Automatic annotation (TrEMBL):
Keywords: Cell membrane, Membrane, Protein transport, Translocation, Transmembrane, Transmembrane helix, Transport. This is Preprotein translocase, YajC subunit. InterPro entries: Preprotein_translocase_YajC. Residues 86-120 are annotated as: Disordered. Its main location: membrane. The keyword Zinc does not apply. NCBIfam families: yajC.
Length: 120
């Protein structure tokens, strides 16, 4: 195999690695820009540790987050991973009424169990 072919292959691989890392860096910068833009009081955020809270105040590099119970904690801006709603229901979320079909199914199961048990 000619030596120039190996050099061309090596240069091609290095260029591909450079383009991929450049694209990843641009995506990370875009995500960071969106996160900093969304750090306004009232927005839900998720930290890198998995803590969900609402932004109370932003003071320089320090962000004050409130839990659903109202406790406030201080976090570094670098610890904020994303602006997103929590996967659980917040205190302000409305409770949806239960489905009538589920209640009927429970009643049917109870009557089946009663029928299966022997009565003295």
């Amino acid at each position: 195999m000619p030596q120039h072919f190996l050099w061309i292959l090596l240069i091609g691989m290095l260029l591909m690695m450079w383009f991929v890392s450049r694209r990843q860096r641009a995506m990370q910068e875009e995500q960071q820009r969106r996160t900093e833009k969304g750090l306004v009081p009232g927005n839900w955020v998720r930290t890198i540790g998995g803590f969900y809270g609402t932004v109370v105040e932003v003071d320089g590099d320090v962000v004050t987050l409130a839990t659903p119970l109202g406790d406030e904690t201080l976090w570094s801006k670098r610890a904020i991973a994303a602006i997103e709603e929590p996967p659980f229901g917040s205190a302000s979320a409305q409770v949806e009424p239960e489905d009538d079909d589920a209640e009927q199914d429970d009643g049917a199961r109870e009557s089946e169990q009663d029928a299966a048990e022997p009565h003295p």
